[in-house]
Structure formats: structure tokens, C-alpha cells
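Lecture notes, part 5. Sequence design as translation. It can be helpful to think of inverse folding as translation between two languages: the language of shapes and the language of residues. The source text, in C-alpha cells, appears below.
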């Protein structure tokens, strides 16, 4: 919403300024994603819901999604009247796997949502091949993965559409299909879900810094790779350019109690670490009821702890993280 300015000013100028900021954000996002159509969204705009609605997914349909993911993905499925069907993840990437996707398909499946967990690209080529054989669109949830690539190709350019966040209160739907882009844009405008000029400007600044921010996080991750002992460090798939939204490690031992004790001990040493998704979506009250067996998902929610790789971390700060983790080896 554009606020009127005091008497003597020009309200129309503010409207045009907001529109120009949003347009510039969309154009630069499109350039970052190989020229695809881009539709800017404000914070909390429900991007997955907007995309699924544009794909005509609705009542009676099923959408295959990972359970080790933001709950907002399954919620977006429910909001269009469809039902989420949960698929397991791959142990290395922590992303939904193509074999699990295929096993979850049914005659009612209308779409697949692949989440690029923590910035690691999902196996999009194989997931898209499964979907093509069954005539089903794939949506990429890339809120952690701006700047990630697979075999040199940006994530967000494999599926029918992708949803992104920038961490700056502004996100986007990106698609190669002009009809989908137009439908999402119309729904956004009718619902007032577009970003403000300030959100678009902040998002634009983040876009312009993406390459540098990802390069810095990857450099920090390499230090953690070489310095950490006793923890299971990330295993990156061949051809994957990890964006490292955070640095997920596996804490060995007896699962959640040991992982949580390790996190508390790190916090006592001034290192903030988080499980991020401590409860898989299929075990949340709103989604219970079906007998779902997801062994890799269950292992991840018991073992995975995300360490910070903030680009503003200094060498000294990173060394403190490594020292704190290694000094707690006796807990593991």
C-alpha cells in the first residue's frame, strides 16, 4: 500500500516510485535466472499457493512435497484445496530425491515441489525427468538457494516455476511460462501481495550482492570442512554449487538428545546453532493421519544442526566456531 504524502506533495510520484523499484527488482531477478519471467512478492505473500493456483492445482489433487522442509510448502498445498503427499529426502543433499518422488506419485498427483534445502540444489534433472514421464509440473522452492547452481545452471530454471526469497522481505516467482507469470501477477495484485518500494529496494540490493555473498559463504564453508572434527560435514553432490544458506552438520550419537545437548553446549560458548526444522511436517498435528515412512527424514530431524556461515563472520569468529565444536568432542 502506498501512503499519501502531506499536502503540497505528489502522491502519484510515490506510486510511480514504488512501481519503478518493483519493476527494476523483477528485471534484475529475471537476468539472474537466465531471462525468465519474474514476479515480485512481498513478505508473507504465500508464493507456493500462488504458483499452485496458477497451475490449476485444486480440490481432489495431490502434490508431492518433502517433509523435511518449511511447513509453508505443505500449507500452500492445503490453501489451494489439494493434499500434500510426503516424500523422503536423500541423506547427502537433504533434498527430496527422484526415487522418493516417483514412489509417491498417484493418479491424483498434480504437481511436485522440490525444496533446495539449506542452499544445496535438489537433483533437479532427475526429478524433472520423472515428472516429464508422468506429465506433472515441478515447482522449485528456492528460498535458501539464491545463487546456487547445478552443473552450471541456476536453480530456479529447471522446473515449471520457482519461488525465491531474498532474506530482505521481498521474494519472487520465476517461470519460463508467460501465462503462469501473468496469472501469478494478477493474483498478487488483486490480493495486495506485492512488495513495497522499500522491500523491493532492499531485495534489489541483495540481488546485486548475491554472487559475492555466496562466494563468501562458500569460502567459510571450506574452512569448516577442513577444520571440524567428529561432526558429519556436508557432502556436496557432483556438479552442485552449494549456496550455504547455513552449514548443516550431523551430530553423531543417540539422535536428538545428543544433538540438542551439543547445541546447548555451543550456545554456552557463544555459538548459535539451530536445528531449523526440528519437527518433520508429516508429524505436525495438522498433517498427521497417514502412515508415512520417511527414514532419512527422521534421521535428519534427529541429527542435523545448522552452524552459521554469515558472510560478515571474521576469521576470528569462524575460528571460535571451529574451536567450540572441536572442544566438545567428548560429548559425541
Amino acid at each position: 500500500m502506498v501512503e499519501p504524502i502531506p499536502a503540497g506533495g505528489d502522491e502519484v510520484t510515490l506510486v510511480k516510485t514504488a512501481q519503478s523499484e518493483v519493476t527494476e527488482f523483477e528485471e534484475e531477478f529475471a537476468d539472474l535466472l537466465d531471462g525468465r519471467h519474474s514476479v515480485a512478492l512481498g513478505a508473507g505473500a504465500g508464493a507456493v499457493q500462488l504458483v499452485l493456483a496458477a497451475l490449476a492445482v485444486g480440490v481432489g489433487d495431490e502434490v508431492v512435497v518433502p517433509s523435511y522442509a518449511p511447513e509453508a510448502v505443505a500449507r500452500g498445498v492445503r490453501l489451494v484445496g489439494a493434499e500434500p503427499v510426503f516424500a523422503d529426502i536423500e541423506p547427502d543433499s537433504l533434498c527430496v530425491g527422484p526415487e522418493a518422488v516417483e514412489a509417491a506419485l498417484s493418479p491424483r498427483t498434480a504437481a511436485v515441489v522440490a525444496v533446495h534445502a539449506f542452499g544445496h540444489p535438489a537433483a533437479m534433472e532427475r526429478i524433472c525427468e520423472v515428472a516429464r514421464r508422468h506429465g506433472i509440473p515441478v515447482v522449485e522452492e528456492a528460498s535458501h538457494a539464491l545463487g546456487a547452481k547445478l552443473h552450471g545452471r541456476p536453480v530456479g530454471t529447471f522446473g515449471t516455476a520457482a519461488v525465491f526469497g531474498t532474506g530482505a522481505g521481498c521474494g519472487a516467482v520465476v517461470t519460463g511460462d508467460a501465462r503462469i507469470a501473468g496469472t501469478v501477477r494478477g493474483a498478487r495484485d488483486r490480493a495486495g501481495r506485492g512488495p513495497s518500494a522499500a522491500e523491493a529496494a532492499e531485495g534489489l540490493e541483495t540481488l546485486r550482492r548475491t554472487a559475492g555473498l555466496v562466494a563468501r559463504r562458500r569460502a567459510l564453508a571450506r574452512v569448516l570442512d577442513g577444520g571440524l572434527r567428529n561432526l558429519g560435514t556436508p557432502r556436496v553432490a557432483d556438479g552442485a554449487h552449494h549456496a550455504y544458506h547455513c552449514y548443516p552438520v550431523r551430530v553423531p550419537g543417540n539422535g536428538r538428545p545428543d544433538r540438542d545437548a551439543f547445541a546447548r553446549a555451543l550456545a554456552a560458548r557463544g555459538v548459535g546453532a539451530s536445528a531449523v526444522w526440528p519437527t518433520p511436517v508429516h508429524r505436525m498435528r495438522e498433517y498427521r493421519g497417514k502412515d508415512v515412512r520417511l527414514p532419512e527424514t527422521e534421521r535428519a530431524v534427529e541429527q542435523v544442526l545448522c552452524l552459521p556461515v554469515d558472510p560478515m563472520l571474521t576469521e576470528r569468529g569462524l575460528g571460535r566456531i571451529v574451536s567450540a565444536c572441536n572442544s566438545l568432542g567428548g560429548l559425541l
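The translated text above is only one of many valid answers, since several sequences can fold into similar shapes. The mean pLDDT is 92.
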